[in-house]
Amino acid sequence: MGDRKQALDEEFQSFVIGRWPRLMRTAFLLTGEQHAAEDLVQSSLERAYVAWRKVSAADDPDAYVWRLMINAHARKHRRRLKEFLAPRSDADFTPELPDTGDRIAQADDRSTLLKALSQLPPRQREAVVLRYWEDLSEAQAAEAMGCSAGAVKSNAAKGIAKLRAIPGLAETVTHGGRK
Q1: Is the keyword DNA-binding assigned to this protein (predicted)?
Q2: Counting Cβ atoms within 10 Å, is residue 103 exposed (0-12), middle (13-18) or buried (19+)?
């Protein structure tokens, strides 16, 4: 029994070490704040640890943990939905600490991109983050978000359309050499 628990603990530790940067990036894109992202990842991983046998036996443990993270994020803001959906002011926005392996860091004006992303409604933000930053398929994002693939497709399309309508963001992407 002790050997099995130790093996599960080591498996969980390996999972956390391998996924931490990606989970942090996703959490930051959902919350818009470094410390809130750290709290979100830690609380999600606490839940994952408690249910690790179930998580590790899942078809896609990453999707399981993303689902935990998205649900925890939604629960935290459910009571303050109006406040959460309102665009954030510059004073409320905390810049992310740079990550050299992060694809978003390639944008010339990271701040503009993250501010624009923070203005999307939660479900659109989740869909855009999971589909385009985490590069998940519609089915994987749907599993992580707990909805249908059609809902992911719709929310992602609406989110991308809103992002494209922001003039400063379009200029940033064009000047950054990406089209």
Answers
A1: yes
A2: exposed
